[in-house]
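Lab meeting, item 3. Inverse folding demo.
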């Protein structure tokens, strides 16, 4: 059924209301051009028509006082009516209600598609017929949301950030627009991210390899929290991977956080390196940051730059990894080992290898042994882990508004897991493996994940350490020389006291985790509690409760009102679900709940009626209001480093593969070096000769073969007629009558 209206001239009164059959009218069919010329054939989408010229209708005419009378009525249809099972698909019976729209929108925030949302609605409403909409209606709602955003994407994103900054004074954001009015850069950091940066911002991983959003690159600033989990401090969207874009993002990170980074991990991007050196310098009284290259990105290039044969078919990598990955060797040991490997495999003239040696102080762990927290990360794997985490929420083709909603959902999950681990660490104690009291002290101080790292060191100090020398106590300090049975030809020097400890492995300096050698020394001098000078705020359970400048989040009164409304709606929903659960599956109890809900709806109708919440209002509540004037939009296409270099990297691999010295093929049949056994000409001649003789082997009368043909036969053991010299060719090994020497052949 379709409805049409005729209004008065002032548009205030509806004069006529037409209710017609949905199959009224006839579609015009176009058969092509009428000039008879052959036009180009265009493949069109196949479609059907439901219209058959049905005249059934009802017309209502306005009388007065909002009353109507039936002016015209045609009851008869010229087509069979839809059966009961198909009524759910009629347009009049389909409507994306507030509940269905909420399902689609809430599922979209966690990257659940329309198909799964439709299946969820089916289970929730008790069947497809009870949903009141089809899968196509669900998908059309998602389409309508993208059309609602349209070209206003970037503008709506900035307006949403403005509202968030008004409600939360600790929210920081910045953006940049080019001369054409395109949004090219966007940076944001909320109050929780800024607080986490003050606690765990000593080492940050930054990488720009995530899937693009409208061709903008998503770049989160990632660190490690007290549970040894990834934590996001801030994020940005960049249109290009240039020095200017990186400098802009790093500059706003410094403004938002109030200080430079201590350490940043990056890949070998030249633009990123220049930006790091320019921005994180010692200007304006800030401490200059130090950067370290990702080891994985460099080691992963070894087969390309040095060849697969050297890296995979020799012991080159096995010998090299003992020097490039070890964090317990000194610089002199690394230099000697590197030089030995170069001479053994003759890499003195390899330019790329020499370039990597020239920047060895940027990626070899031996050069970072004296730098605090440089052992926390060796690669940008934390960023890779974050990218995988965000990929569970991200979908290619999302608008910026949709991306922001899913980013918030990802942050909610990450922070909820952090709260869950806090609760687990504070409310329970792990099982200890030794009777040493210091292990109980570690369990009381540190989080669960960090305790297990300490426990591993404590256990190793009891079973793997051998004390080679122990000095007398001088000024409260005892010196040890300890051998680790798992490390060959290495003695670790430890200077231990009841208040502090220093070990030559320097693990505490690089990771702020006490090493096994120090625990071994503590055990010898009778320490039962960790020295409090070695208990740093970073890994302890109460790290979040320490005072920080951004610990108190400033929010406006409007924000509190919005939060109260949201909490009230959630509370009402859970109260209703609790009432339904108490009713159980008993019909009379469910009827009682249903009658109360109906009465409540009637009371609300009598007190002002239902509040209209249209589809447009619902979309506005999700992604924001449409701006009255479009000031800027997103950029349609951006040439990122991936789009520019992807082809050149592939071509470089092809070129290096061709230049690589290939193995010379050798024929296994004739021993020649110009071909292999598949293309051997000699084998082809043998096959032809065998085929020729095979055709003349026997005649129809079953005559015996000649000795000449018998010598040229090629066969296998199943059809071999000549097992030994003198055997006949009348049978094979399966039917051979001559089993032993001297037997006769029948």
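The presenter then showed the designed sequence:
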């Amino acid at each position: 059924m379709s409805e049409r209206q005729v209004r008065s001239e002032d548009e205030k009164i509806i004069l006529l209301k037409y209710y017609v059959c949905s199959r009224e009218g006839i579609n015009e069919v176009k058969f092509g051009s009428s000039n008879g010329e052959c036009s180009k054939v265009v493949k069109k989408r196949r479609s059907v028509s439901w219209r058959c010229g049905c005249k059934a209708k009802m017309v209502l005419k306005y009388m007065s006082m909002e009353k109507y009378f039936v002016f015209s009525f045609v009851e008869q249809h010229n087509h069979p009516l839809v059966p009961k099972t198909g009524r759910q698909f009629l347009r009049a019976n389909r409507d994306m209600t507030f509940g269905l729209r909420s399902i689609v929108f809430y599922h979209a925030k966690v990257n659940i598609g329309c198909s799964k949302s439709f299946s969820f609605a089916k289970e929730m409403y008790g069947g497809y017929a009870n949903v009141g909409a089809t899968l196509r209606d669900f998908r059309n709602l998602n389409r309508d949301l993208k059309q609602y955003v349209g070209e206003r994407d970037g503008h709506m994103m900035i307006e949403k950030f403005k509202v968030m900054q008004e409600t939360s004074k600790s929210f920081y954001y910045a953006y940049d627009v080019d001369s054409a009015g395109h949004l090219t850069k966007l940076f944001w950091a909320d109050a929780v991210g800024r607080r986490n940066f003050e606690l765990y911002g000593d080492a940050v991983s930054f990488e720009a390899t995530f899937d693009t959003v409208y061709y903008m690159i998503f770049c989160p600033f990632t660190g490690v929290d007290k549970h040894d989990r990834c934590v996001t401090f801030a994020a940005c969207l960049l249109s290009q991977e240039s020095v200017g874009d990186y400098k802009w993002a790093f500059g706003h990170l410094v403004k938002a956080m109030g200080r430079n980074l201590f350490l940043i991990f990056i890949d070998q991007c030249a633009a990123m390196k220049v930006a790091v050196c320019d921005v994180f310098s010692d200007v304006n009284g800030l401490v200059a940051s130090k950067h370290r290259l990702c080891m994985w990105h460099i080691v992963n290039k070894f087969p390309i730059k040095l060849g697969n044969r050297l890296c995979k078919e020799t012991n080159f990598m096995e010998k090299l990894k003992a020097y490039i990955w070890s964090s317990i060797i000194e610089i002199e040991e690394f230099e000697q080992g590197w030089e030995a490997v170069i001479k053994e495999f003759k890499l003195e003239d390899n330019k790329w290898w020499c370039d990597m040696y020239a920047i060895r102080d940027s990626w070899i762990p031996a050069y970072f042994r004296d730098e605090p927290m440089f052992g926390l990360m060796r690669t940008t794997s934390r960023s890779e882990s974050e990218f995988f985490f965000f990929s569970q929420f991200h979908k290619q083709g999302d608008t910026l508004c949709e991306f922001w909603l899913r980013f918030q959902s990802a942050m909610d999950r990450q922070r909820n897991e952090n709260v869950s681990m806090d609760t687990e660490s504070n409310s329970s104690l792990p099982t200890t493996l030794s009777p040493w009291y210091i292990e109980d002290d570690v369990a009381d101080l540190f989080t669960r994940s960090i305790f297990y790292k300490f426990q591993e060191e404590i256990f190793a100090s009891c079973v793997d350490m051998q004390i080679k020398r122990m000095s007398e106590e001088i000024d409260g300090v005892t010196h040890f020389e300890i051998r680790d049975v798992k490390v060959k030809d290495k003695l670790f020097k430890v200077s231990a006291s009841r208040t502090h400890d220093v070990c030559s492995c320097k693990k505490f300096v690089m990771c702020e985790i006490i090493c096994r050698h120090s625990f071994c020394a503590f055990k010898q001098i009778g320490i039962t509690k960790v020295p409090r000078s070695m208990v740093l705020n970073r890994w302890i359970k109460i790290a979040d409760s320490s005072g920080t400048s951004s610990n108190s989040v400033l929010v406006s009164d409007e924000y509190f009102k919005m939060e109260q409304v949201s909490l009230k709606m959630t509370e009402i929903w859970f109260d209703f679900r609790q009432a339904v659960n108490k009713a159980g599956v008993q019909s009379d109890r469910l009827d009682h709940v249903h009658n109360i809900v109906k009465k409540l709806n009637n009371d609300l109708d009598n007190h002002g009626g239902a509040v209209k919440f249209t589809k447009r209002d619902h979309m506005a509540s999700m992604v924001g209001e449409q701006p009255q004037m479009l000031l800027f939009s997103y950029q349609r296409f951006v040439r990122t480093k991936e789009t520019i270099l992807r082809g050149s990297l592939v071509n470089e691999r092809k070129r290096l593969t061709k230049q690589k010295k290939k193995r010379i093929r050798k024929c296994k049949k004739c021993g020649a070096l110009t071909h292999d056994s598949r293309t051997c000409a000699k084998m082809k001649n043998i096959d032809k000769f065998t085929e020729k003789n095979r055709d003349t082997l026997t005649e129809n009368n079953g005559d015996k073969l000649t000795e000449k043909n018998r010598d040229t036969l090629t066969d296998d053991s199943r059809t071999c007629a000549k097992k030994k010299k003198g055997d006949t060719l009348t049978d094979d090994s399966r039917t051979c009558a001559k089993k032993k020497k001297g037997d006769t052949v029948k």
